[in-house]
């Protein structure tokens, strides 16, 4: 026995049957409660839990605002696209304008150059004609028809006798002539048979310089072999020819219409 057993406050109280029964019942009840709880939990775990979330319903005002926002976004996109197209068109137009300006300047420069060249040629041609007329006047001033003799004098007399007759294309006399018809008829008077047309008459004799003309020489206009007009040099810087329908057969100075060349057949 413990040495403190005689002290009452240190004695353990006895468990009565009632207490033991209560504990047993309690334990049993606890076990049953735990079993019941476990069974309930197992049953709950076997069935899926479904939870429903309620979303807010769009009101008419909110739907209208959403639609307006979408329209505004679409309009902004369209405006950006339109502005981009305008910018691209403006850039293209500026590039084309620059190209057109450069081409216009190039054409203007080319036209100016062509005009200057034409003016230079015209001036040179005028100077050449002036020199040619001066040379013809100087070279023929000492030549006189009175010095022509024989066949040349007869040719000169014939053409001078026709001055005032009409000019008719293809005319061979006796009162109307074309240029080559008159020349052919004049030389026929002295037994020289010339070709009918100007082109052939311009190569019928010996080519002579315009600065060394003699009465009776045949003058031609155009190239030798491709002449378009002929006449007869009569001396003193003068020629006789069937010029055109408005003048007929005339006697004119060489400066009136300077010839291209001359041939001598006598």
What's the total count of β strands?
A: 8
Shape: rod-shaped
CATH fold assignment of the domain at 143-264: endopeptidase fold (from Nostoc punctiforme)
Euclidean distance between termini CA atoms: 195 Å
How large is the share of residues in beta strands? 5-15%
CATH top level label of the domain at 143-264: Alpha Beta
CATH architecture of the domain at 143-264: Alpha-Beta Complex
Give the neighbour order of strands across the main sheet.
Answer: 3-8-4-5-6-7
Largest sheet: 6 strands, antiparallel
| Spatial extent as radius of gyration | 67 Å
Low-pLDDT parts are: 16-45, 140-146
Mean pLDDT: 79
Instruction: Give the topology string: H per helix, E per strand.
Output: HHHEEHHEEEEEE
Name of the CATH superfamily of the domain at 143-264:
endopeptidase domain like (from Nostoc punctiforme)
Number of helical elements = 5
Share in helix: 40-55%
Structural class estimated from helices and strands: alpha+beta
Properties at a glance:
266 residues, alpha+beta, endopeptidase fold (from Nostoc punctiforme), six-stranded antiparallel β-sheet, two-stranded parallel ribbon, 52% helix
Quick recap:
This protein has helices spanning 17-46, 60-140, 150-161, 179-188, 198-201; strands spanning 166-167, 176-177, 206-208, 218-221, 229-235, 238-244, 248-253, 261-264.
């Amino acid at each position: 026995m413990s040495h403190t057993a005689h002290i009452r406050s240190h004695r353990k109280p006895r468990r009565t049957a009632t207490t033991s029964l209560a504990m047993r019942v309690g334990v049993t009840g606890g076990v049953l409660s735990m079993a019941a709880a476990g069974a309930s939990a197992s049953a709950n775990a076997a069935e899926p839990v479904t939870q429903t979330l309620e979303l807010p319903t769009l009101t008419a005002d909110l739907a209208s605002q959403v639609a307006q926002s979408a329209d505004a976004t679409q309009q902004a996109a369209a405006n950006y696209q339109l502005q981009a197209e305008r910018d691209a068109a403006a850039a293209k137009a500026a590039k084309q304008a620059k190209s057109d300006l450069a081409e216009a300047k190039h054409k203007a420069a080319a036209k100016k150059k062509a005009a200057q060249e034409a003016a230079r040629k015209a001036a040179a041609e005028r100077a050449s004609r002036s020199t040619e007329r001066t040379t013809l006047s100087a070279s023929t001033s000492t030549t006189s028809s009175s010095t022509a003799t024989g066949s040349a004098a007869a040719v000169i007399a014939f053409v001078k006798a026709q001055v005032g007759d009409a000019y008719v294309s293809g005319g061979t006399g006796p009162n109307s002539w074309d240029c080559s018809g008159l020349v052919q008829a004049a030389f026929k008077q002295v037994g020289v048979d010339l070709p009918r047309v100007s082109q052939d008459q311009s190569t019928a004799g010996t080519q002579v310089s315009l600065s060394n003309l003699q009465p009776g020489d045949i003058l031609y206009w155009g190239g030798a072999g491709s002449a378009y007009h002929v006449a007869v040099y009569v001396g003193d810087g003068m020629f006789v020819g069937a010029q055109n329908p408005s003048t007929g057969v005339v006697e004119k100075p060489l400066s009136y219409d300077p010839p291209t060349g001359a041939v001598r057949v006598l």
